[in-house]
């Protein structure tokens, strides 16, 4: 079912890994060789983790599973890659934002720093054959609906009016 999915996720995964590596580089104190190793280890960990959870035909499916999260707990995939270059979780918490969410989905990689930060897109590519779906402008830039597991904004809106 995941036709050529492995090759297709390469760009998204390398974008995500490069972003976390950039954050570490900006914090300083880590050598380029270590950073390169970290990036490769993280890419490998993400590839393994996403192998059976990548659905180009339904990009938001599995989004929660693929979400990389630091929230007073270190994301295990980042922790694993950091361990390979001898960085402890304590050190990681000093170097990386204490609250970081990174969504790695087919055709889009985006992140948010802080719980109320705005969501920034790192990588976006048009979905093949997505001409029939709604145009990009009408797509909401906020990922709230994905985070809560609802894929259609209209349903989400109804849910919100019901619960408020």
UniProtKB/TrEMBL annotation:
<feature type="domain" description="Anti-proliferative protein">
    <location>
        <begin position="96"/>
        <end position="115"/>
    </location>
</feature>
<dbReference type="GO" id="GO:0005634">
    <property type="term" value="C:nucleus"/>
</dbReference>
<dbReference type="GO" id="GO:0008285">
    <property type="term" value="P:negative regulation of cell population proliferation"/>
</dbReference>
<dbReference type="InterPro" id="IPR036054">
    <property type="entry name" value="BTG-like_sf"/>
</dbReference>
<dbReference type="InterPro" id="IPR002087">
    <property type="entry name" value="Anti_prolifrtn"/>
</dbReference>
<dbReference type="Pfam" id="PF07742">
    <property type="entry name" value="BTG"/>
</dbReference>
<dbReference type="InterPro" id="IPR033332">
    <property type="entry name" value="BTG"/>
</dbReference>
<feature type="compositionally biased region" description="Polar residues">
    <location>
        <begin position="149"/>
        <end position="164"/>
    </location>
</feature>
<dbReference type="GO" id="GO:0005737">
    <property type="term" value="C:cytoplasm"/>
</dbReference>
<protein>
    <submittedName>
        <fullName>BTG1 protein</fullName>
    </submittedName>
</protein>
<feature type="compositionally biased region" description="Basic and acidic residues">
    <location>
        <begin position="134"/>
        <end position="148"/>
    </location>
</feature>
<feature type="region of interest" description="Disordered">
    <location>
        <begin position="128"/>
        <end position="164"/>
    </location>
</feature>
<comment type="similarity">
    <text>Belongs to the BTG family.</text>
</comment>
């Amino acid at each position: 079912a995941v036709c050529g999915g492995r090759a297709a996720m390469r760009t998204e995964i390398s974008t995500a890994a490069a972003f976390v590596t950039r954050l570490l580089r900006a914090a300083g104190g880590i050598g380029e060789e270590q950073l390169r190793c970290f990036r490769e280890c993280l890419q490998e960990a993400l590839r393994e983790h996403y192998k059976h959870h990548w659905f180009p035909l339904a990009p938001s499916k599995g989004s929660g599973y693929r979400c990389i999260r630091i929230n007073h707990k270190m994301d295990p995939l980042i922790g694993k890659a950091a361990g390979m270059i001898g960085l402890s979780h304590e050190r990681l918490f000093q170097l990386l934002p204490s609250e970081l969410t990174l969504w790695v989905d087919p055709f889009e990689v985006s992140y948010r720093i802080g719980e109320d930060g705005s969501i920034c897109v790192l990588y976006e590519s048009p979905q093949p054959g997505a001409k029939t779906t709604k145009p990009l402008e009408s797509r909401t830039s906020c990922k709230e609906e994905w985070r809560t597991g609802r894929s259609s904004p209209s349903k989400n809106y109804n849910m919100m009016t019901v619960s408020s």
